[in-house]
Fold this protein.
Amino acid sequence: MLRRQFIHRTALSMLTGAAGSLLPKAGLATVDSWKSAFAEALDNNPWLLAFRSTTSDSFAADADLEGRIPEGLTGTFYRNGPARHEIGDFRYHHWFDGDGMMQAWRIQPDGVTHSARMITTRKYLAETDAGRALYPGFASVPPDPKPVTSADSVNVANISVLPHHGKLYALWEAGSPWEVDPADLSTRGLHAFSTETEGLPFSAHPRVEPDGTLWNFGYVSAAKKLVFWHISPKGQLVKAGLIDCDPIAPVHDFVVTERYLVMLIPPLNFEPTGGGSFLDQHQWHPEQPTRVLVVDKNDFSRHRFFELPAQWVFHYGNAWEDEAGIIRFDAARAPDPMAMIDSFRVIMRGQVVPDGGSFHHQYRLDPTRGTVEETPLLDQGTSSEFPTIDPRVIGRRYSRIVMLTRSSSAEHEMLNEVSSLNLDSGSLDTYRYPDGVIPEEHLYVPRRDLAPETGGWVVGTGLNYRKEQTELRIFDADRLADGPVAIAALPYALPMGLHAKFV
Ligand SMILES: [Fe+2]
């Protein structure tokens, strides 16, 4: 049973860690040098444009089109991501702290138009009004911070986008969905699936099955609990439930099969130290296992934990159960969370610290024997992230993963290829982005008149930092190596975003 009292207590404490730990501290009331350090680094390192703060709170343009829009590809490519990285003299200390901006790339037979708007969350409006950063974020604490009164008071809606039952939501992971108008991208307000569950965390990677059934989770750090969500195709709450998880970590993504919800819980344990940001309240324990949690979709109280060696995973592709009851899933496996703890932090002051990278693996979990096997899916040395699939095979047997990869050096430190991996044949089809362009997450957009995974397009955006413009590329999903069939370029450069969805 979810009680509102519990919700208010946990929603607040999940961000603040120990009570009051993020209240003002003596000696912090001066602006630090991150903003000037980044500006100086950008002069010498043009690809850092990916992390520049947005130059406007809204954008609109007709894209300059090279090539042709393929027949049958019509729709809107939405992307969300952190965009306002600076306010006043303060620059956030982590990529994940920037306020969210929603983009819409509208693809029509005769061209592509683009629009973008900052998501006007409570925090965004309060800080815009004040002209300075007011609240602690995921990994940043500004000078003279105000106390956090609820998770949604600091919800920056900056990670992903969810289209569901005709509505569009911008998602963070520690608070509620923010509803956004799908047409003009204006912010409509916070969304609650019920009064009982109002304010409970709703993570950035819900899984929507082909019939519209939605599953999601959230982590409630201070209470050491995970919340699980089951939402109907019409957007109604079917059930929500809590599972004890001690120790608990900031879990980012999960997968579903026909019968189960599956997630890895890495040993990045929430251990409040009484100071610093929410991220600072975590300790990495490589000597401890990464637990695999398997939850029964029909009854969240029925769940089991399995174990893997310590590892970190941001994102999964998909999962399914084979005839023998083995749960198979894939994920971008990193040896540790150093990208999040270190690289994505210091990049905000223009400092480049390569992390260990992440490498695509397939997992086979045998619930009867209690074992989990992991096998690399790509050549050693080929790193990967942002796996996506044909949305019509979620939770079912699948053979194709589209992801960003990096198999050779590049001028910048980010991933520089888009690849399609066929799990049945093992074949890999790769397009290497030209120097000067950093790709963002790409999506598999199926042709609706064909069976799943048998044809369609790969659509993705990227930052051309040499031309200072953001570009959208469309590929034939079966011929990535041939290069894009169309490129739509904007007359401006946007900060690099996170997740996208095609409607
Ligand atoms: Fe993500």
